[in-house]
Design goal:
heterodimer, A: mainly alpha, ABC transporter involved in vitamin B12 uptake, BtuC, two-stranded antiparallel ribbon, 11 helices, globular, B: alpha/beta, Rossmann fold, 7-stranded mixed beta sheet, 5-stranded parallel beta sheet, 13 helices, 14 strands, 45% helix, 17% strand
Chain lengths: 290, 401
């Protein structure tokens, strides 16, 4: 069972899956880092983005990787509007209210999807969905390899935005000291909404990477968001490198526990890690001390 | 104003009550038409199979109604239900159908759903005809209302293993080791248990038995295990989506055993699979439900379904046959009375179906004539290879490289 013939491909597959988990977690951790809210609507927005990618392919014939260029701005706008028009005003600046508003939002989005598209599980069929790259020691699925590369590209862009642009600087300032940033003339409500938009755009890109090999139904996002929470906790709340490394670790853990414990118990390893991190290092790998 | 409103509502109430009291007699006075529950998982993970099942059932209903309905009872009024691919969903639909006053329920599809539906229907002595559900527990719990027209696990596994041994022997015993991949609900797990008990008696060594949930969207780990252990035979027992994914992942990872022999493989004998993924489907063998390829009525039905642009899958002709069986029992019972219908079903010797079965005879709710056949994907088509009485071709084993 420990033969490298299956161990190496299993680990590689885990890394590839983990990269997409990391992207979902990236959006979550970004929103947490700045807004200090746990965005419960993240999973529902992922489901919505998967539906968008699905219909972009079915109705417009748009390849999911091209659709990402369309959906990322669209979902950025949706995220911006949600924070600016719904979550912000409804929560009156109280973090606990934000939590409840996002939870309510997730219920509304999920049920709207259920109403519109029913509970059916849908898939798209692409010619390259089952194509593989032969690395000699492993055949890796093409869509996953693309996904892996795209996630790192997105992480790089995100890092550059945060590091070099004015809005990045403003986001970091608001995350560190909200009142100070406001006194310095930064429009906090705008920064909040921009951050929420960026997090939602991450989800849209993740959806485009998932749809070639995954399926979509109204509650599909829930499974991911649970994993993404684990990653955020593992990597440290609000930490971008933490989300990336945490995602890869969780992907490998899931793949290996699936291999050794069976597919039915594949996710048990993830939640054991979740509990272990909370017990031993509540701030996570890269988290700042509270 | 408010007084006026009150008196109006009181009048409405009185009228409503009167109508409610009068309603049963009105229904009886009509004397025409009988309600039949058609219950399938048309949404959720099993929605494809459920939709196919509904199609088959409705084809039979339309056929009967076009010919004037059931003798003495009139036309069938189909009450459609969606079990949503969960046992709880199935139970809820039974409650609704019972309130709607159906004479019987046909359908269920998945074993776990059939178990829940049969139990819920038994509380109302509501006759229930299982369309597919193969778990033997469905008919061995002593429920008087439950009838299964098709074969159960026991019979299917026995036939499958005997036929596998026969095919292997005829080819000079090239296959010795086996790997079983099954879905982890009642259907797959039960089958895996039976195979584990019976295959060693025929000289096969089982390398590993791998369960997986439904839905599963990644079979890489499972296929990697195959790669490491290199079994001669792979036996998948799962539903359509997972079966297709498994076969395609095997193709993707270049895993080629000497044979893929399914027992009730979700896609192994599906025209949809063969048409959409001919390379992955090539030479796959299956022991499954199938229509009688020599019955003209079956061939006419096949043409009708294909003319609609649909695939002629086992869900279609099994549900078609089950509705015909129920209609025949209703005609003999002469009423929609649940007790009389149950008796009529129990004593049925219905022969007007499209299945390759022996004479219909129910013992404890199980049709003794029911039997599976062996098929193989040959020349981009699905051919019956065993038993000889229905065979269209000879099995090709081991798979040519």
């Amino acid at each position: 069972m420990l033969s490298p013939v299956i161990l190496i491909p299993a680990i590689l597959n885990g890394l590839l899956t983990g990269a997409v988990y990391a992207l979902v977690a990236l959006g979550l951790t970004l929103i947490y880092g700045v807004l200090h809210i746990i965005n419960f609507a993240h999973g529902a927005l992922l489901s919505a983005a998967l539906f968008a990618a699905f219909f972009a392919f079915r109705l417009l014939g748009l390849d999911p990787y091209l659709a990402a260029f369309l959906l990322a701005p669209v979902f950025f706008a949706i995220g911006y509007a949600l924070q600016r028009l719904v979550i912000g005003p409804a929560s009156h600046g109280d973090d606990r209210n934000m939590l409840l508003v996002t939870l309510g939002l997730s219920i509304i989005v999920e049920n709207a999807l259920l109403f519109a598209f029913r509970a059916d599980t849908r898939t798209i069929d692409l010619s390259y969905a089952f194509a593989t790259v032969d690395f000699g020691f492993a055949f890796l699925a093409v869509p996953r390899v693309i996904g892996f590369a795209v996630v790192f590209a997105v992480a790089l862009v995100l890092w550059a935005i945060m590091r070099f642009t004015d809005i990045g600087k403003a986001i970091r300032a608001v995350a560190k000291e909200k009142l100070g940033a406001e006194l310095a003339g930064i429009d906090v409500a705008h920064v909040y909404a921009m951050t929420f938009g960026l997090g939602t755009a991450c989800v849209a890109i993740a959806a485009c990477l998932l749809i070639p090999t995954y399926y979509v139904n109204p509650s599909v996002g829930d499974g991911f968001v649970l994993i993404a929470f684990t990653i955020v906790v593992l990597g440290g709340m609000g930490s971008v490198p933490g989300a990336l490394i945490g995602g890869l670790v969780i992907g490998v853990v899931e793949s290996l526990s699936g291999l050794f414990l069976g597919e039915s118990l594949g996710q048990i390893g993830i939640f054991l890690i979740f509990i272990a991190v909370l017990l031993a290092r509540p701030t996570g790998l890269f988290g700042a001390k509270a | 104003m408010s007084d006026n409103k009150l008196s109006l509502s009181r009048r409405t109430l009185l009228a409503g009550t009167a109508a409610t009291i009068a309603m049963p007699s009105v229904l009886r006075a009509q004397g025409a038409g009988v309600k039949l529950g058609i219950l399938h998982p048309v949404s959720g993970a099993l929605s494809y199979s459920g939709t196919q099942g509904r199609l088959g059932a409705m084809l039979a209903v339309d056929e009967i109604n076009a010919a004037g309905g059931i003798k003495g009872l009139g036309k069938i009024d189909a009450v459609l239900g969606d079990a949503q691919s969960t046992p709880a969903g199935g139970t809820a639909e039974v409650e609704k159908m019972n309130s709607a006053g159906v004479a019987a329920i046909v359908g269920g599809y998945a074993s776990a759903l059939c178990l829940a539906i049969s139990q819920a229907a038994a509380r109302y002595d509501l006759p229930y005809v299982v369309d597919v559900g193969v778990a033997d527990a469905i008919v061995t719990r002593g429920l008087k209302n439950t009838f299964r027209f098709g074969p159960g696990f026991g019979v299917i596994a026995k036939t499958a293993i005997a036929n596998l041994a026969a095919i292997n022997d005829a080819a000079g015993k090239p296959a010795k080791t086996v790997m079983i991949v099954h879905e982890d609900s009642l259907f797959g797990s039960g089958l895996a248990k039976l195979l584990n008990a019976q295959l060693p008696q025929h000289g096969f060594q089982i390398l590993e038995t791998i369960p997986h949930p439904t839905p599963t969207r990644d079979f890489n780990n499972v296929v990697l295990k195959m790669k490491a252990q290199n079994p001669d035979l792979v036996i998948p027992a799962n539903y359509y989506n997972e079966y297709v994914l498994l076969a395609r992942t095997m193709q993707q990872q270049h895993v080629k055993p000497k044979g893929i022999y399914s027992v009730l493989g979700g896609a192994a004998s599906s025209y949809k699979f063969v048409k959409e993924f001919p390379e992955a489907a090539k030479y796959i063998m299956d022991c499954n439900h199938w229509f009688d390829p020599k019955n003209p009525k079956a061939l006419a039905l096949k043409k009708k379904v294909e003319d609609k642009g649909q695939f002629f899958t086992y869900e279609v002709y099994m549900n078609y046959s089950c509705v015909l069986l129920t209609a025949d029992a209703l005609a003999r019972a002469g009423s929609a009375d649940r007790g009389k219908l149950t008796e009529a079903l129990a004593s049925s010797s219905f022969a007007g179906h499209v299945m390759p079965y022996g004479p219909t005879k129910f013992v404890n709710g199980q049709n003794q004539g029911a039997a599976p056949v062996n098929t193989q994907v040959l020349d981009n088509d699905i051919k019956v290879v065993l038993p000889a009485a229905f065979a269209q071709a000879k099995p090709v084993f081991p798979m040519p490289a």
